[in-house]
Amino acid sequence: MLPEGLLYEEDVILTWMRDRFLQDLALGRMPKSANAKDGLTRLGLNPYFTYPAIALFEPCPPQGDDEEEKAQRIERMRDDLQQRAFRGSAVFMDGRHRIGLLFSWASADQLEAVQSLVAERFGVPVSVGVGAPCALLGDVHQSYRQASRALQDTFYRGTGNVIRHGELPRYAAPRDDTQELEQALLEGLKAADADADIEAAVDAYYDALLAEGPIDIRAMYELTARLLVGAEKKLLPNANYESACSRCEILSVVKLRTLREIKAYVASFLSGVRSALLPERKESHRSIIKKTIQHMEQDYRGASLQRMAQKVYMTPTYLSLLFKLNTGTTFIEHLTQIRIEKAKSLLVGTHYKNYEVAELVGYHDPRYFSQIFKRKVGLSPTEYRESAGMA
Fold it and tell me: Which of 134, 302, 267, 132 is nearest to 194 (CA)?
């Protein structure tokens, strides 16, 4: 009998091999000469499926989860799903923080029950995209693509639903009068007396955008980004700064998963713009930014917009806007300057290696740190140290 440690190691290797094989099958990477049934048999999996199909389970993790936490949750969820899934099915991780389920189509009506059990077990919403059944196991990559496409409709339906590819609507073309809709929203913002008025105006804007049916999700992100940038330029025309809606904030919009989240983000941003326009708030805003900078200088290694916003009891969107208005630079630019100054001190005053300095000031990638340092200082970290006689 093998020792327990070796049994565990063999189990881990077998799981990895199954994941890899099922990923190749689902992604259409199997060689034409390969026999999928033989491969499943060798890995101890059921090789017989009647109208095989793929379902993709995608958990919606809590905000603040890092990549390691996401990966660990997915692994635990995969193990749990393997116990709960239909008899003869096969479970695998697809490498995109999703769990694939290869099953026979006769079991499709059980997906809602399995999804509910998994969501309850892990305490997070779980969305499921379901592809159409295939006649042949070798064609199951088509079902995988359809399941992945179905998951994208989480944007409109929200998280925690089972979405079948055959139920997806056709996307309409964006309206021709989107600029007029933006202008109507901005007029509503100017007339707003409270945040609830802004939320109502944002809802009206998106309802009008979708009056003829859902439109391509990429177009929704693009229209939202244009709205945010345009709102700043029109509502704060005399402010002496470049857009606070920097590339960082636009990327934040793209990371939002649902239309509901986008609406909340836009309403929060516009509420911040409205607040920034109120003269009686200016002194309060300066005090908040002063405190924020103090926190950044004390915690430059772990500082982030999200973390600093929590410390001053604001949304990241609002803090980003106020920071640019009051300092003339973006939050990221200011944090970078603080880190570079600390790095210069460490390079001259200590014997830490360059990668150690990078880590101490908050950069986990030494190469990225060197690029930023040279761009800001004009010298690489090594050249800067040599120029100070510390080499």
Answer: 267
Q: Report the alpha-carbon angle 294-297-303, nearest 5.
A: 100
Cβ–Cβ < 8 Å for 323, 333: no
Measured CA to CA, the distance from residue 200 to residue 196 in angstroms comes to: 6
How many CB atoms lie under 10 A from the CB of residue 279? Answer: 6
Report the distance separating Cα 25 and Cα 17, nearest Å: 12
Cα-based distances in Å from 367 to 358, 363, 370:
9, 9, 5
Nearest of 52, 51, 50, 70 to residue 61 by alpha carbon:
70
Predicted local confidence at residue 250, as pLDDT: 65
The list of the chain residues with pLDDT below 70 reads 1-10, 62-67, 236-251, 277-282, 389-391
Q: Is the dihedral of CA 307, 310, 312, 318 positive or negative?
A: positive
Q: What does the pLDDT read at residue 368? A: 92
Convert the pLDDT of each residue in 31-49 to its tens digit.
Answer: 877 889 999 999 999 999 9
**CA distances for 231 relative to 184, 220, 244, 253, 271, angstroms:** 11, 16, 11, 15, 11
With contact defined as beta carbons under 8 Å apart, do 376 and 343 qualify? no
Q: Torsions phi, psi of 253, nearest 5?
A: -65, -45
Alpha helices in 244-330 (DSSP H): 247-255, 259-276, 282-298, 305-311, 316-327
